[in-house]
Structure formats: structure tokens, C-alpha cells
């Protein structure tokens, strides 16, 4: 005798348009997609925190990333608790939750950038997005657990294992897609919008198709309207994202933005150049000010050129301005520039304002460019150089910390010829004395004798650049080579010990520990 109840699903189990096993796999596929999108939102917030708020070693590595992730994990726990109230209507709740997550996560990058550009402060907005996205992500698993149990009555342990396996694999895919696909190909704004659209489609399709028989007509209507609205908002934002970026850049950099590109390494923005000297920004930070860059580059290069300088190695300096100063010595035979970003070198070669500023240094046959990270490049056996010029971003910036470490200077010592000189840009002396003197302590720990000196900008553009000239032995004397070319910057203020050298020594911070790869000390 055939039991008439066998063909009917048990009480509480929803009727599906597919077999239960297929429905189970569809739910797990949705878990996979939603987990990937959720991790992209998290990584996007961490990346924007570093870029928009600042990324000193202390702030970015410890404070900002930790705040974003810890707030988000805390909010996920809150979301899991709140989801208990929605389990009786899990399908509707999950559909609305994914629509909200797609809208908030997809638009978060644009909103954060807008606050940064026009308000100048985005910390509170960052924390708000971390909380909101965390709550919504945390509510996903309880609702999905309810949905998958309504499809088939399997053991709870196996269901939990399947859900978390799909969730973790999806997070892996999202974590790899963000740095290798979304960020370099689409940028943070368009990448976040596309992620939101994928999130909305995955969540909406799962509920409106697979669980449509579990919804009332009114619920289906509201879910459809919500998802269409979210997709329309994301699509509109995607169409307008280029205009938005141009307006935001104008608000941040001024009206004379000529070049703005994501090179895969960083954002490069070049302003001015039509009616005045160009300014070069890397990841939002002014790297070259065309009005007075000569003060910095003359102070960086010429003290190190006192003595033999047949072969010169420049670490960083992709803008070609340090190479310009080196090439002013006719007895220089070779200049090797190690630059991590080929996009900066391309601009320095061809830009109608930047190329004349570096006096077309890359056209000189003595110049050889190596595209590589300076730390990695120094690890391989190389030849030796009479002069090594470290023209790198300030040490308090997170990506640069390893380039001011004890290990890095140990590698630099290996390529320095006997009697050779190493010069290091170590950041401002007055405003960041701990950073500057930590570089000094690190050089000394690596076996160098270092001599500090400073260069200052003019009254129209006051700057304080700190440098350290080092040799493998006693600290070298400061001065210029007999064959040094005529300089534009006043020599006493930029290139001699004078009052500035004495002033630097007068504010020396004693007994600072060196910075290492394991224990970076920069970030005052």
C-alpha cells in the first residue's frame, strides 16, 4: 500500500521548482557568492582606510585595519543575533538583507571618497560602514541555515559543515579577486559597484526563483522592487563613476588635473604643467612639487657625489629628477634607476611637463631602468656602485617601512663600493624627529657612519627635508665635489652642515632602537 503522504513534503518544508538536492546546491552556491562579495567589501574598506585616512606604520597597520576588521567582526555577531527574529520568514528576510548589503557595500567606496574629497573627514563614515556591512554579513548564515533546512531534513552538523565550507571558499575567491582583478582592472569604485550588483543578483535570484512558492504575492512584489531599485542605483552610479572621480579629484587636487591613472601599483595624479610647473601625487600624497623640487633633489644628490661617482644607483626616483642631477656630472658613466612602478617612468619619459622638468633624463644612454621592488632587487647579487641614492617615500608610510629597515641597509651595504656613499631621504627633522632619528639609528646599527643634514623650501612653499649621508666607517664630511655643477638652491641652507646640520644634531633623540622587518619603528 502506497502512503499518500510520501509525495508531499514534510510540514515546514517548502515546495521547490527543482529537486531538493539541486536546491541545496543552489543555496550553497549563493552562500559562496555572498561570502565572496562580503570579503570584497571588507577589503575595500581596509584599502580605503589606508588610502584616504593615511597609512603610517602605526595608523594603518595597527589602528585602521584593526578598527575596520574588529568592528566588522563585532557587528557580525550582532547581525547573527538579530537574524533570529527573521528566521520565521527567512526567505523574505534574506532577500531584503542581500538587497541592503548590495546597496550599502556597493556604494560604500563612492560615499567614503565623497566625504574625503568634499568634507575632508571620513573616519566616522568608515566606522559606520564597517558596522552596517558587518551586521548584514553576520545575519546571512542564520537565515541561510533556515532556508537550507527547509529544503531537506538532513543532519544539522552536515548542514553547518556545508554552509561554512561554501562560505570559506567564497571568502577565498573574494580575497583573491579583490587585489588581482577588481582593484587593478576596475579600480576601487567600479569594483565595489560591480560586487554590489553581483550580490544583488545572487540574493534576489535565489529567493525570487527558488523560494518563490514560500512568498506571498506582496512579498514577491516588494522584493522585486527592492532588487530592481538597487540594481538601478548601482548601474547609474557605474555610468556616472568617471564624472564622479573627476569631480572628486578636482576637489582634492584642484582644477588642473591633467593625468590620473591607476598603474596597478598606485594612483598617479599629475597636475599643472600648462601655465606652471607640474605637481606629481602618488596615492594622494604630493611626491614632486614642480615649484621647488630642485631644493630637494639637489640636497639629496650632490653631497653624495663628493668623491668617486662613476657608477650611481638610484633606488626609487622614477620621476627622473634625481637622475637629472646625477647626469650633470660629465664623469658619470652609468646610472641605474630601480623603480617599482613602470607607470611613473612612462610619465617621466613622455609627459609634456614632467619630461622637460627632468631634462629628458631617460633619453641619456647612461641611464638604465629596472622595474623592481628595491628590496627584492638588492637581494640578488649585483655589481657595486660608488653612490647609492635612496629616493623613496617617507619611512612612516607603511609600504616604505621595509625600505628603511636594518635588513634593507644591510643589503645596500653589499652593493656599495669601497669608499662609496649612501644618501637617504629620511623625512622631515622638525615635525617627525622620532622617524628621522630612527633612520639614523638603523643606519648606524647596519654598520654605517651617518651625517644628518637638512634642506628647506622657500617662503612661498616651506618644507623641511631631512637627509642622512652615510659611509661604511666614520661619518662623512658634508660638502660638494670640486666638479659640482652650479646649483639653484642656496648651498649653505641645503648642502652644508652649517646652522641646519648643527640644528639637526641639537635635537637628536638618543638611544632609539633600529627599525627591522619584524619590528618597524616608524610612525610618530
Automatic annotation (TrEMBL):
Please give the family membership noted in the entry.
Belongs to the spermidine/spermine synthase family.
* Residues noted as binding spermidine in the record, renumbered to the chain: 297, 319
Domain PABS as annotated: residue spans: 232-472
Record has Secreted as a keyword: no
The entry's localization annotation reads: Cell membrane
Quaternary structure?
Homodimer or homotetramer.
**Which reaction is catalysed here?**
S-adenosyl 3-(methylsulfanyl)propylamine + putrescine = S-methyl-5'-thioadenosine + spermidine + H(+)
The protein's name in its UniProt record: Polyamine aminopropyltransferase
Q: Which organism is it from?
A: Streptomyces lunaelactis
Locate the active site: 391
**UniProt keyword Transmembrane helix, yes or no:** yes
Q: Which residues bind S-methyl-5'-thioadenosine?
A: 266, 339, 373-374, 399
What taxonomic ancestry is recorded?
A: Bacteria, Bacillati, Actinomycetota, Actinomycetes, Kitasatosporales
Q: Which GO terms describe its molecular function?
A: spermidine synthase activity; thermospermine synthase activity
Query: What stretches pass through the bilayer?
Result: 25-53, 65-83, 95-118, 124-148, 160-183, 189-209, 221-241
Q: Which CDD domains match?
A: AdoMet_MTases
- What's the stated role of this polypeptide? Catalyzes the irreversible transfer of a propylamine group from the amino donor S-adenosylmethioninamine (decarboxy-AdoMet) to putrescine (1,4-diaminobutane) to yield spermidine.
- Give the GO cellular component terms, alphabetically: plasma membrane
UniProt lists the gene as speE
The catalytic activity of this protein is classed by the Enzyme Commission as: 2.5.1.16
**Record GO biological process:** spermidine biosynthetic process
